[in-house]
Write a structure and sequence with these properties.
The complex is a heterodimer. Chain A is of the alpha+beta class. Chain A has 2 helices and 5 strands, in the order αβββββα. Chain A has a 3-stranded antiparallel β-sheet, with no helix packed on it. Chain A has a two-stranded antiparallel sheet with strand order 2-3. In chain A, helix 1 runs antiparallel to helix 2. The two termini of chain A are 23 Å apart. By secondary structure, chain B is mainly alpha-helical. The two termini of chain B are 18 Å apart. Classes of the chains: A alpha+beta, B mainly alpha. The interface between A and B is large, with 36 and 41 residues.
């Protein structure tokens, strides 16, 4: 009987969701950033989640942790706006703004914090299960 | 007259262990609710009970199986959050039940030993 692994799974989940929230914060903060060239423009960061399986000695009945394997830049098209008066405008008068989709980021933020809460709840429940076990045989 | 503790406690330590292992698996499903391509897994309680009833020593070798989702999702993830949360919650209640049975067994033994 190992509760330790449940704490690891929930902890890894909380960590992954924190990274996701960090990228959301970064994206939202840079949502309106303009750049001199399209190469320098801020591109939305997206975490990539992968599953890591924990094997038991028997090789069965394992839990599945989550891991952030990479943080990639979104390849959505940049937001080119026609602003000839802007100091960063190119010859055609266009300015490259970041490709952050604010609405998408807000939805992602809610999903991430919900997911974080789920993991906290899993951990709390595991703790109360373990507490019950420790008091086994008490009058 | 010796008391065989394993026999006295009955099936409950085994089910308690099963519940912990299952909650580990369900915790993994919940953690991976948004991982693309993740396939939700579960342990089969019925298979364990059949093994125990047929007198086999189950040990910790539980059968895992992949869940069949009610609806397919675009990212091939088969975790259905609401259902998974319900299962996790029910599993921990079942754990509490096994724990209570175990406690009752122990207090029964205690009464027998103390003779009161």
């Amino acid at each position: 009987m190992s509760f330790g692994e449940i704490y690891n799974i929930a902890g890894a989940g909380m960590h992954a969701q924190t990274i996701r929230l960090n990228t959301v914060a970064s994206n939202l903060a840079n949502a309106g950033a303009a750049a001199e060239t399209p190469e320098q423009a801020y591109r939305a960061l997206k975490p990539v989640f992968t599953t890591v399986y924990n094997e038991t000695q028997q090789g069965k009945a394992s839990g599945a942790q989550i891991e952030v394997s990479a943080i990639v830049e979104s390849d959505a098209p940049l937001d080119l706006r026609y602003e000839p008066d802007h100091p960063f405008a190119n010859e055609q008068g266009y300015v490259a703004y970041s490709n952050v989709n604010t609405v998408e980021e807000m939805a992602d933020m809610m999903a991430a914090s919900r997911s974080f809460e789920t993991n906290v709840e899993v951990m709390n429940r595991a703790r109360s299960m373990q507490q019950g076990l420790l008091q086994l045989g008490n009058k | 007259m010796a008391i065989n503790l394993d026999a006295a406690l009955g099936i409950h330590p085994q089910t308690l262990d099963f519940r912990v292992e299952r909650s580990k698996m369900l915790a993994g499903n919940l953690a991976n609710a948004e991982t693309p391509g993740y396939k939700a897994q579960d342990l089969d309680f019925k298979a364990v009970m059949t093994q125990i009833n047929s007198g086999m020593d189950v040990g910790r070798d539980y059968q895992t199986a992949y869940r069949v989702p009610y609806e397919a999702s675009a990212d091939q993830n088969t975790v259905e959050l609401g259902k998974e949360q319900a299962r996790y919650s029910q599993n921990s209640m079942d754990y509490q039940t096994s724990l209570t049975f175990l406690n009752m067994k122990i207090s029964g033994l205690r009464s027998a030993i103390e003779g009161q």
